[in-house]
Amino acid sequence: MKKGLKLKEIVVIAMISVLMGVVFMGLDSIYKPLQTLAGPVGGDIIYGLYLISALLSMYIVRKPGAGLVGSLFTGLVNLLMGSPYGIHIIVASFLQGAGVEIAMIFGRYKRYNFLQMSFGAILAMILVTIRDYFVFGFALYAKLIPVMLIVRVISAMIFGAGLTIAIGKGLNATGVLNEFRISSKDDF
After folding, report:
1. pLDDT in tens, 4-20
2. Do 121 and 156 meet the contact criterion of CB atoms below 8 Å apart?
3. pLDDT-based confidence at residue 161 (cuts at 50, 70, 90)
4. In sequence order, which residues have a C-beta less than 8 Å from that of residue 8 and are 6 or more positions away?
5. How many angstroms separate the CA atoms of 185 and 176, rounded?
6. How many other CB atoms are found less than 10 A from the CB of residue 115?
7. What's this model's pTM, rounded to 2 decimal places?
8. Helix ranges restricted to H, the chain
9. Taking Cα atoms as reference points, which of 56, 55, 31, 26 lies closest to residue 45?
10. In Å, how far are 79, 106, 146, 153 from 158, measured between CA atoms?
11. Any residues with CB less than 8 A from the CB of 80 and at least 6 apart, and which?
């Protein structure tokens, strides 16, 4: 069986990406005020939502490259819409997609349960957090880093993996994904 992405899969990934790019612009307007109110940990509460584009693309298509393509498309849409993070959004998008892909490699692209999706979300979060440490000066918050990581892990699991699975199952229940791998088996 050919494992490359088919045109219909790329179109669905692109649609998810455009939608998530718009959602991210809204999240960006919430992220900064949360940081203002609760310090560096504030924005971390909703951090997992930023992982959905890579996770949902992978969860629906279930093929190598889906998470990376979805994340990069979303980053590009977000950048073109005027992301306050500029070109750094593309680097973060690449790292998120790479984290999800690496996690799925460990599962041989066969497991899409909450544990596997959480692994992908957490790995994506770790890669982006390493970038954040150097790009956004997280070294200034050395004492808060353990708390930030705990909040990001919880957010990645709940809002990243959990919400992705809920959205994917909801879309699948409508029948619009009948031709995609998500509809071929239930991992729960």
Report:
1. 899 999 999 999 999 99
2. yes
3. very high
4. 179
5. 15
6. 13
7. 0.91
8. 7-38, 40-44, 52-61, 66-80, 88-106, 114-135, 145-155, 163-174
9. 31
10. 26, 21, 18, 9
11. 21
Look up residue 21 and give its amino acid. Answer: G
DSSP state of 6: P
Q: Nearest-CA neighbor of 109 among 74, 73, 66?
A: 66
Q: What sign results for the dihedral spanned by CA atoms 97, 165, 74, 147?
A: negative
Tell me what pLDDT residue 185 has.
61
CA 163, 36, 25, 21: dihedral to nearest 10 degrees?
A: -40
DSSP state of 5: P
CA 185 to chain centre: 22
Return the sign of the alpha-carbon dihedral for residues 178, 182, 186, 188.
Answer: negative
Query: Residue 140 and residue 162: Cα distance in Å, rounded?
Result: 31
> Which two structure tokens, joined as six digits, stand for 64?
């190598």
